[in-house]
Amino acid sequence: MKMIRAIIQPHRLEAVRDALTQRGIMGMTVFEARGYGRQRGHTEVYRGAEYQVAFRPKIVADLVVPDNQVDDATDAIVSAAKSGSVGDGKIFIFEVGDAIRIRTGDRDENAL
Amino acid sequence: MKMIRAIIQPHRLEAVRDALTQRGIMGMTVFEARGYGRQRGHTEVYRGAEYQVAFRPKIVADLVVPDNQVDDATDAIVSAAKSGSVGDGKIFIFEVGDAIRIRTGDRDENAL
Amino acid sequence: MKMIRAIIQPHRLEAVRDALTQRGIMGMTVFEARGYGRQRGHTEVYRGAEYQVAFRPKIVADLVVPDNQVDDATDAIVSAAKSGSVGDGKIFIFEVGDAIRIRTGDRDENAL
Amino acid sequence: MRRFRPVRSIPAATRRPMVAAALGLVAGTVAAQPAAPAIDTGDTAWMLVSAALVLLMTPGLALFYGGLVRGKNVLGTMMQSLAAMALVGVLWVVCGYTIAFGSDLGHVVGAFDYLLLRGVGGDPLDGQSIPHLLFVAFQGMFAIITPALIGGAVAERMKFKAFLLFMLLWVLLVYAPLAHWVWGSGGWLLELGALDFAGGTVVHISSGFSALIACLMLGRRRGFPGEPILPHNLPLVILGAGLLWFGWFGFNAGSALAANGTAALALVTTHVSAAAGALAWLLYDWIKHGRPTALGTVSGAVAGLVGITPAAGFVSPAAAIALGAVTSLGCVTFVTWRTRRGIDDSLDAFGIHGVGGTIGALLTGVFASHNAAGLLTGDARQFGIQIVGVVATYVYVGIVTFILLKVLQGAVGLRVTVEEEMIGLDQTQHGEAGYSM
Amino acid sequence: MRRFRPVRSIPAATRRPMVAAALGLVAGTVAAQPAAPAIDTGDTAWMLVSAALVLLMTPGLALFYGGLVRGKNVLGTMMQSLAAMALVGVLWVVCGYTIAFGSDLGHVVGAFDYLLLRGVGGDPLDGQSIPHLLFVAFQGMFAIITPALIGGAVAERMKFKAFLLFMLLWVLLVYAPLAHWVWGSGGWLLELGALDFAGGTVVHISSGFSALIACLMLGRRRGFPGEPILPHNLPLVILGAGLLWFGWFGFNAGSALAANGTAALALVTTHVSAAAGALAWLLYDWIKHGRPTALGTVSGAVAGLVGITPAAGFVSPAAAIALGAVTSLGCVTFVTWRTRRGIDDSLDAFGIHGVGGTIGALLTGVFASHNAAGLLTGDARQFGIQIVGVVATYVYVGIVTFILLKVLQGAVGLRVTVEEEMIGLDQTQHGEAGYSM
Amino acid sequence: MRRFRPVRSIPAATRRPMVAAALGLVAGTVAAQPAAPAIDTGDTAWMLVSAALVLLMTPGLALFYGGLVRGKNVLGTMMQSLAAMALVGVLWVVCGYTIAFGSDLGHVVGAFDYLLLRGVGGDPLDGQSIPHLLFVAFQGMFAIITPALIGGAVAERMKFKAFLLFMLLWVLLVYAPLAHWVWGSGGWLLELGALDFAGGTVVHISSGFSALIACLMLGRRRGFPGEPILPHNLPLVILGAGLLWFGWFGFNAGSALAANGTAALALVTTHVSAAAGALAWLLYDWIKHGRPTALGTVSGAVAGLVGITPAAGFVSPAAAIALGAVTSLGCVTFVTWRTRRGIDDSLDAFGIHGVGGTIGALLTGVFASHNAAGLLTGDARQFGIQIVGVVATYVYVGIVTFILLKVLQGAVGLRVTVEEEMIGLDQTQHGEAGYSM
Ligand SMILES: Nc1ncnc2c1ncn2[C@@H]1O[C@H](COP(=O)(O)OP(=O)(O)O)[C@@H](O)[C@H]1O
Ligand SMILES: Nc1ncnc2c1ncn2[C@@H]1O[C@H](COP(=O)(O)OP(=O)(O)O)[C@@H](O)[C@H]1O
Ligand SMILES: Nc1ncnc2c1ncn2[C@@H]1O[C@H](COP(=O)(O)OP(=O)(O)O)[C@@H](O)[C@H]1O
User: Fold this and answer.
1) What is the fold of B2-111?
2) Could you tell me which of E399, E299, E310 has the C-alpha nearest to residue E339?
3) Which of C72, D25, D404, E355 shows a CA-CA span of 20 to 30 A to D424?
């Protein structure tokens, strides 16, 4: 069982969700975040002065999937989130030790 | 040392915190998030049209505990967050490689 | 490849980012969160009554780095985020299984 | 001062013609007027504005209350005010006005002569100098905000349907008759000589006491008083308070029904009472809790505004400072007590409007010195009359509100389910979210 | 009622002097007046306030629209209104006013005699009782909000530069001539006898229909109608609606140009039409979707306000209730239909202002009973005239707007790039963020 | 124009009676009036509204400033304005008014005859047509917003206690005497013939220059100018600016103290100067930074409003366009410079009010053509007098403010601790959070 963390452009969220749903992958948790990497920050003007704002708005989507769905899911995310320009984002993959569905107490992959 | 991530209904946060405190488990970090799983999204009405909003507000609570407190903590969370209806949420468990308390430089379980 | 999660005081973010940049460590994702630990919550007054608000605002900065940069990065964070008082925060370290740069498809450390 | 009994001891002689013109109660003056009383454009201008200002208070209240609740209930709370504008806006023209200001039936209620504003036009009422229609509009704005105030006590848990039906019946059965008692020609409290310049009893005590009954019948919000339930957006609350302070000039100074010295007096007393109320609560918080709070400051301002409402045209600016400060401290004392007691008057509709209205109505009988006299100016009887007015309001409002709520409880239920309360009213009652990413 | 043709059938005799005084069209009365018409301080007071109230509507609109879009476009949307205040504020004084109200050229446009307000001073115009400068100011506020309304149809995707140039040309080529037709002395619709009390055709139909054309030419927002694009901040929307309702009293009752019975009538009809519109949409949502929404309630209020605009001084309060409810239901029906059809009039500038303005202009010819007569009061011809006014407005506005947008499309382009649209207008057009941590 | 010296060259003869009536300075007219000067209901209506409008500016300022700071300081910033309403609201009635407008002592200050408003009632002052109490109220609103403006320079770091004490002393020792100089009967600048229609020196230069001194004495915010410190909520700022623009009509047009041609002129010049200021800054940002900003637009509007304040009733609408644009460009130039220089006038209290007030006061002496004459209309002396007025204001304000702050620094300290500054003022000074989940 793995957690896939996708850090994407905010306006790509709907597309990513659609792509995942199409492949039968349901369930994720989404955060608003701000990111900073190679992508140049943007300039904001404030009363006659320009400021470099390093952080840009990003969406972080965490989804836990069985091991055999990892490739499928990352493919779906990449295809839906990719525009080809800097700032498209990253995917990181983490091992998940256990999972529990609070409602039923189901554990592990049954909890997904 | 493990990180327990509990994705719960927002209105359960206080109860979860109480349950953990009662068992002597202190310390957590809490995020506002939006989730999507089996629970049906809700309908919003916007000027004569109905929209399906897939994501629902959730609270994500991350807490790092020594290995021997994992069961205790998950029990506490489940008991406090469970209502029995879809959407109660999930618990995911991750291995933590190291921990540092910034103030003191304490490491590992001493940092908690 | 590791993910360093730094939970810090909000007003330390700029200093932390500067310290990391100085050591050539670029790229992170930042969340607004609320934390609760040893640090006493604060009191809010609401129409003649005092309430203990347990959670305090925190910034969570997640950065993924190659294994050989972990110490450098944590040092930088600790030095920039430390004031010596309770509530300075924690650093947790997680193993990252894989990384993908969405734009290029680069994997693993090449994706950073 | 829609209509008050001019007492014998009017201090400044110059004020008499104004009072007479505004009230048409001094026989001689009325006789001297021509048959068709004339419209004064200045008075009309001021009353057009006053009507607009009082209308603005209800959106102001929506913001004030909306910011105080949790984010999941912001729309549900604002909708109580919006619904008052929609429902009572129509209702007043249809039959509310005539119940309050139609020709007197037994000193307690108006007849149906003005149903759907039949016969109400551009000509002024006797003794007024503004179009009758404008008087209707001005009064109609009061009828909107009064039931909306009640929402503060039942916020975050009352069914919208129940609140809507409650407002409908309450305006017809409680508000309109009360307005007749105090301001309607022939109303028994008017005839008794009760002083209520702009609605201390009619607006604030009535809504405040109904609010208390309603919150006791509904019970507490889940989590109260154990968990802190804190305002989700204080800048909205401050904005709402700013609009209320602004609109209150129309409420109080507009109640002179003319652009004259009494209006100016009411504007000044309203302003300084608000300021004194704000300052008193600010200092209270500072002394008691170590820090002056923004919410305390605006709560004190509203308390000061409520307190001066019955007194605005009757007291001196100096007395208004005292009145505002005393009212504010009275409110904060009550509010602290009710929280300790676990009474969930969630946004203090009773704590501020009921308590503040009561203090103000009584102090009017103490401080009155302009256009009337009170305890300090030698008219102890006036103080007694004020007590009668207050008690009568409590009794009538209490009984009718209790019955209304009992009936609605049986008919549609008053409270949302636990599940709905936890998810929030915005989604469950209105199918919306206040804020989206 | 800046200037309307008093019909023969004015019902109440008492109203005649008021009409005459306000309009100076009844020869006898004018003759009776001294050569230099006098300023009335009451009328002036009311019109000073009315001008201020109408100005406030544009920030109100900025909030109303700004809350309805996504957070990344909140400033871009508000900037459309702010730019209208900045640009048209200056433009009106320079040459807008004289195009609309300069001496008549062929019944269609004003001459340049008031360029830069040459010769406009403190003395009143013939038949008015307020300083000429004040009339300029009052009218100027209308010229600001009208183009700002159009922004609602093109929100979240139109280039700011294109919108700014469009407003500049549109005010001079569409708005000012239309104002001349309807309100300018010698304007052909005025002479024909069309009734438009406060701008149903001039303001609402003109902006609404231009908005429809603009949104069709621009095309839909990315994601519409597939994805839900929901308001990011409904409390802002409610606040905006509250300020609009408040300001509309200046808009409509101020259009009496005096503090008189007609102003009072307009204030009452405006208020109850807003209330009835709000109530109708609230109930519609409840019946149709199971839940009464806050956005529906305020949308209905705005629809009611739009509907009553041409009628405000001509109909009875009871008729205003009907008019408000019918307009609101007409708007919600259209809005539902256009969404199903995939027309992205994003914030319903046409759906509310165009549709509501059309319904209101026609119903004015049905319900008129004060200062004029309509279908129900026996003047079928008036209804015909109203149709002529509406059709003429559609035709003229449609043609000129279409040409203007075509020209601008070629010259500067109308729409931001896909990339810019996805990032949002705040950052890409204005270099700012609405909200920061 | 509370009181100005009518110059010989009043252009339109028709204006003279108005001026005379408003000012009571033309002997003949006063003699012609009956012993007891009469109240004019129209003038009174307008001034009731104007007082309310000016009051609303302070909540408007609270929003404007509150949105500009970081979220952790939003309440601390708004509290500076709220505290001004509370404290100065009371203070003005107690002794502020009499220091400013009591009978003249040596041309520099008023005596204590109006302590606690003793003897102030419904009768008008000589030469006025509104109740004396209303004049007190109108003036009192100015005394509230002036010290609140200073908060913009010291935002996010000044101790609340120090700010409160500072306001208390500053209103008594700086504002009230200055008001006496310029508007008080017998004040030396009034007698000299300085023109300050609505407070360019008294309100804007005085608060602006005090603000500059205060921010230099306090030092910069941590992080300034290295880190971007950006507004947390620009929609609030825009809303605040909208309320300021709206309220400024009361501020400037209300300063005519009557509903007359001068008020209409002031309303028009105020409006177009705001529009021109907004447009100028919008275009400046566009040309200089490639994008027109919302904050620039509203900042320009406020600059335009500040600039026209001393000139509103003295210049033509065309001159007001020039004045607004010049002031706005002057402000943006200064603001850019001070940021580069590392001066942390955080929200540009000096950059907009000080600079804009100075430009406006001087340009009044250039453009004056109504009710007075200036450089362009042949009165070079007037320009000299304006310079004297400006310099005197800077000198007096500078010295007293410096001393006051030094004393407070010793007594209670001016600045919060580093720790408190980093956590934010909301929590540390007020025990509250602006926003909660
Ligand atoms: N090392 C990192 N650790 C955590 N998050 C990162 C890291 N590098 C980038 N990110 C996140 O990914 C986002 C996109 O990265 P960036 O380098 O700008 O573009 P790209 O992914 O196209 O190379 C950043 O805004 C940040 O949120
Ligand atoms: N596979 C998943 N990965 C990450 N988060 C998930 C996943 N499945 C569910 N969640 C989170 O858990 C929440 C509850 O899940 P849901 O399936 O709706 O209910 P239940 O937990 O009762 O089965 C979701 O809203 C989402 O935030
Ligand atoms: N066990 C834990 N798991 C997750 N987060 C924690 C834990 N303990 C503390 N934190 C986070 O770290 C922050 C600081 O911790 P705290 O104990 O208050 O101070 P310190 O780090 O100085 O000991 C908390 O507010 C919380 O966000």
Assistant:
1) Alpha-Beta Plaits (3.30.70)
2) E299
3) D404
